[in-house]
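Practice problem 4.
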């Protein structure tokens, strides 16, 4: 989402690289480019002006240390200001009350129902969750929520014939109490535009249900309109936090940068993709780091830990010690990588890599040829790759729908990886190698 903004900010800050010191002239030029980059990214003009004025003021007030270049110093200042602009620090949702009630609001098409499922999926390991289908206007909404509930193994309370959203919600609370559900996520109706009927209904739901948390879900791809809609909702509803959906879309990203300042409510979650685990807690500092092309190692580590299989890691460590790591193990690692989410997002979390891949098309399908090649091997070939000769490669290529060149390339990469493991094993680094592989593969 932030590729264009990242590129323009990088170009702007480069103006200071190679400069011996910070001066009013070179800072003014750089700040002007930063402001233009933010406005081009659809950031609210007043927000862009305020943040760049602060950047300029702080930059001119700094003495550049000999160990730090002006460009590095300005990068740090810009990172700090972007972080503050997006809220400063992460803010968790409230999980209080028995049952704890979370009310979901937003326009139709913003992704409320999908987000409700994702949030239930995220919370179900901590609490017994119930989804309440209170969108009484969109015919497919109840069915969609039921499908999501089945997918994530979370109960859905629905009354398809009832056209009173408040009554359904109250009955859902009664059901929750009777069935030991500790959190209720109430999915409400949206409209194609803000209208009085919708606002009155959601206001009544909030007044009567007294939710611990009211979240406003907004489509990040709508740009500045998302900020304006959020402000209209907040003036009437006084919600507790914002959820930005469709963050994997091809848009300028200005909503994420300016919504916090305009609405004065924190962004609590960002949603990307259709998978039920594609929901992240919003960390302003990490997002600022990613925008500036500095990666997000902390989030990458957290994703790895969420998919860490200790038993599998022990087996992998043993195979590395005995040099019996085969293609089945490699395939297992690929499966773990896919569980972590979108490949381009993952690679973009590695410092310095996001700029290099901004024009490269990376998607989950890019792993399919590798998987097809491995699955076209016999069990014996996967266990002992050294027996794969020319005729076997020809058969594997034909069976996987790939070329012999692609099979050779995979074999070469696999052999290089095995040699690296063997070397580290001799140096007593088997455990470190295993941890490194788990970091790359989860």
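Answer key:
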């Amino acid at each position: 989402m932030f590729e264009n903004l990242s590129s323009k900010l990088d170009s702007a800050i480069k103006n200071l690289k190679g400069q011996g010191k910070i001066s009013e002239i070179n800072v003014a030029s750089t700040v002007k480019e930063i402001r233009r980059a933010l406005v081009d990214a659809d950031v609210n003009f007043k927000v862009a002006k305020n943040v760049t004025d602060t950047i300029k003021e702080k930059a001119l007030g700094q003495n550049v240390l000999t160990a730090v270049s002006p460009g590095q110093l300005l990068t740090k200042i810009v990172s700090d200001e972007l972080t503050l602009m997006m809220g400063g620090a992460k803010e968790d949702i409230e999980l209080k009350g028995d049952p704890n009630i979370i009310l979901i609001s937003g326009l139709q098409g913003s992704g409320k129902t999908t987000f409700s499922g994702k949030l239930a999926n995220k919370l179900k390991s901590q609490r017994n969750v119930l989804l309440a289908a209170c969108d009484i206007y969109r015919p497919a909404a109840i069915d969609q929520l039921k499908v999501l509930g089945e997918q994530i193994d979370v109960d859905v309370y629905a009354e398809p014939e009832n056209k009173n959203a408040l009554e359904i919600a109250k009955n859902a609370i009664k059901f929750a109490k009777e069935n030991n559900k500790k959190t209720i996520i109430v999915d409400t109706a949206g409209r194609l535009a803000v209208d009085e009927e919708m606002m009155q209904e959601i206001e009544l739901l909030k007044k009567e249900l007294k939710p611990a948390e009211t979240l406003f879900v907004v489509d990040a791809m709508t740009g500045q309109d998302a900020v304006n809609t959020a402000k209209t909702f907040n003036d009437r509803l006084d919600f507790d936090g914002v959820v930005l959906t469709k963050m994997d879309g091809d848009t300028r990203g200005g909503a994420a940068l300016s919504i916090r300042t305009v609405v004065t409510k924190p962004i609590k979650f960002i949603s990307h993709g259709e998978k039920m685990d594609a929901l992240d807690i919003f960390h302003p500092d990490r997002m600022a780091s990613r925008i500036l092309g500095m990666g997000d190692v902390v989030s990458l580590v957290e994703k790895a830990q969420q998919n860490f299989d200790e038993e599998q890691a022990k087996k992998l460590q043993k195979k590395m010690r005995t040099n019996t790591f085969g293609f089945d193990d490699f395939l297992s690692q690929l499966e773990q990588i896919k569980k972590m989410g979108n490949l381009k997002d993952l690679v973009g979390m590695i410092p310095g890599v996001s700029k290099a891949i901004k024009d490269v098309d990376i998607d989950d399908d890019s792993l399919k040829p590798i998987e097809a090649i491995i699955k076209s091997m016999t069990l014996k070939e996967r266990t002992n790759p050294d027996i794969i000769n020319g005729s076997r490669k020809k058969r594997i290529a034909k069976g996987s729908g790939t070329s012999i060149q692609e099979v050779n390339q995979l074999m070469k990469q696999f052999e290089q990886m095995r040699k690296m493991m063997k070397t580290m094993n001799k140096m007593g680094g088997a455990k470190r190698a295993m941890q490194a592989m788990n970091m790359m593969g989860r």
